[in-house]
Amino acid sequence: MLEEFAALLSQLGSFAEPVGWLTLFVFLLAVALDFVDREYARPVFVAAWVLFAAFWLALIYPFFVEDQSIIRGAGAVLAVPLSLLVARVLFSGRDTLFTLSRAIPLMGLVYVPFLMISTLREQLVLLVTGHTAWAMNLIGYNPPLVTELSEAEPYAPEGVSYNLDREISGKEFAFENSFVFFTDGGGTITYTIILACTGIGSMAVIAGLVLAVRASPWRKLKALAIALPIIYVLNIVRNVFIGISFGHQYAHFAPDLTMTLFALENELRVSYIWADRIIAQSASVVAMVVIFWLVVREVPEVMQPVEEVLYLLTGEEIDLAEALRVEREPPEVEAAD
Q1: Domain shared by 44 and 165, yes or no
Q2: What is the pTM assigned to this prediction?
Q3: 328 is catalytic
Q4: pLDDT in tens, 105-129
Q5: Pick from 75, 95, 115: which residue ends a domain?
Q6: Residue 27 needs a FRET pair 20 to 30 A away by CA distance; which of 44, 55, 103, 321 works?
Q7: Total count of domains within the chain
Q8: Residue 166, C-beta contacts closer than 8 angstroms, at least 6 positions apart
Q9: 238 an active-site residue?
Q10: Which residue stretches of 213-254 are H helix?
Q11: Among 121, 238, 269, 277, which one carries the catalytic annotation?
């Protein structure tokens, strides 16, 4: 039974991309209709949330199995019923969910250009790669940075034979650079900077939330000016931590248990799983909570869509302003901005 269910999730994974594009289109259509008449937009937003649930369902297998990410996989599992719950409650007439519904496509509009426009993707990836290399050098680590493994030959330790004629796994585009670490046994470990390593996903989430609320442009700009650079810098720290921990095998914890739980075939991957999938992703969740607190100090309106999510999860109205010790922006002040 479990094998059949896993096979079904695997098949659904192949539909994640087309369902994702369809979901974004329907969300954007709903946003456009919201400018005309909210009641026209409501059923379209409901349909978009149902599609969003299908999108997350299709990502469960890729996140858990292909990416070997427990945190992202668990997030996808949670997102399926939550999206369906949003659809049901929105259909029942809870208008406060319209802000959250606007935030989703805005997040997509921030992220999609870097996904679709090769020049934007390349420039962002190269910028992050350069800053990651600079930070590594700053703390005393100097792994060669190459686009092809053969370029690392001049840096290989003498007296050991390394196979540098093979392709670097995980590379999708020629411009992506990889840090190369040499092992004592004649092997190599490569850490490649790709779009997922740039932090653009986290930036899109914060930007979507800020842009979706009704607040003065100046306060929105100030919030983004605080949050986005912090995300970028923390992402560089994340890349350095993962690269060095993986390349030098500093996170080789509980190898037998880790290999069993994550179905690993190569023991060298243990350090990567711990550094990236467990430690870095857990720290990212904590960092996003702190960044959210900084954002709401400038744009308290951002608390409203998050409070809606908490309401759906708990069934209770939760006052984040009191919990975070943040004053809500009075309507009359908003009008005067």
Answers
A1: no
A2: 0.88
A3: no
A4: 999 999 999 999 999 999 999 999 9
A5: 95
A6: 321
A7: 2
A8: 149
A9: yes
A10: 217-247
A11: 238
